[in-house]
Amino acid sequence: MKILITGGAGFIGSNVADTYLKAGHKVIIVDNLVTGKRRNINPEAVFYEMDICDENLSQIFDKEKPDIVNHHAAQISVPLSVENPLMDITSNVYGWVNVLQNCINSGVKKVIYISSGGAIYGEAEEYPTTETYNPKPLSIYAINKSVGEDYLYFYRYQYGLEYTILRYANVYGPRQISSGEAGVVSLFTEKLLKGDIPTVYRYDGEPDGMIRDYVYVGDVVKANLLALEIGEGDAFNIGTCLETKTRDLYWEIANQLGVNEEPHYGVARKGDLHRSLLSYEKAKRVLGWEPKIGLSEGISQVIKYIKELK
C-alpha cells in the first residue's frame, strides 16, 4: 500500500514510517520540520517539507494518491495549548480538516488518526480508563484532539472515509524531543547527562508528582501496523495500564545514570492532569495488540540513543 504520514519526521511518526517501510509499503512523509528532524527521515521514503495547513497540500495528494493517511502531525504541548489556544487550533483543527478534505478529494480509503488517551479523558472518574468513558478534556490540546475524532465520524458518515483512532498514553523512546510533558523521559535524561537536575511538577498533597501511563514507542508502532488492516470505525487506547509517578520516573532514569540527587520540585502547570491510566483490553481483544517493553528497558534505549547523538 501507499501510505502518507503527516508528521513523519517527528518522534513517533518517523518510527511508524520505518516500520511501514520494513513491511513493504511505500511511504510518503509530509512534515514542516518545526519539531521533526531531517535525521529521522528514512531515505526510502518520499519526503515533502510542508505544513498541513498549506493550501498546496492538495498538490501532494493529487500527485501521490495515497491509499491510507496516518495522521501524526500535531501541536503536542498541553501547557502551550493553554497559553496559545489559536496556535493549537490552527494545527490540530484547521490543519486536520485540510488533511481530511484532501483525503476525500484524492480517494484515500482510510485514515489512522492519532488521538490522546493521556489527555482527552481529563480527570477521569473511571480508573483505569476505557474507551467507553465520556471524554472530559481539561486543556485546549485535549479539546482539539477530541474534536478531531468528531470530524472523523462526520467524514465517514458523509463520504464513507474509513478510519481507526489510536488514543496514545504518554509515549516515550528514541527520537523523542525534550519539550513539554510529552517529552519528560528525554528531558530528564538529557538534563541528567549534562549534570543538571530536572524539575518534577506536582500538586499540593502529591509529593511524588502526577501519575502517568508511559508506553514505549516500539510498542506503539506495532499498533499502527495492525491498524492498517483492522479496527475500522473504532477507537483504541494504546497504553500499558501501569501507573508511574513522576518522581519514580525520575529515579528510574537517575539510577540508570548513577545519579543520587533528589530532583527539584515545581508547581503543576496549567493543563496538567493529576493522573492518567489507560486500559488496553479493547486493543488486545480487537487488534491483537499489547505492550511488550517495560519502563526500565525502554528508558535504557532512550539513554543509549541520546548518548549516541552526542
Question: How would you describe this protein?
Answer:
With 310 residues, this protein is of the alpha/beta class. The protein is built from 10 helices and 13 strands. It folds into 2 domains: 2-171 and 214-238, 3-Layer(aba) Sandwich (Rossmann fold), CATH 3.40.50; 173-212 and 242-274 and 293-309, UDP-galactose 4-epimerase, domain 1 (Alpha-Beta Complex), CATH 3.90.25.10. The strands form 4 sheets. Strands 3-2-1-4-5-6-11 form a 7-stranded parallel sheet, sandwiched between helices. A two-stranded parallel sheet has the order 7-10. Strands 8-13 form a two-stranded parallel ribbon. It is globular, with a radius of gyration of 19 Å. It starts with a strand and ends with a helix.
Give me some keywords for this one:
310 residues, alpha/beta, Rossmann fold, UDP-galactose 4-epimerase, domain 1, 7-stranded parallel beta sheet, two-stranded parallel sheet, 10 helices, 13 strands, 18% strand, globular
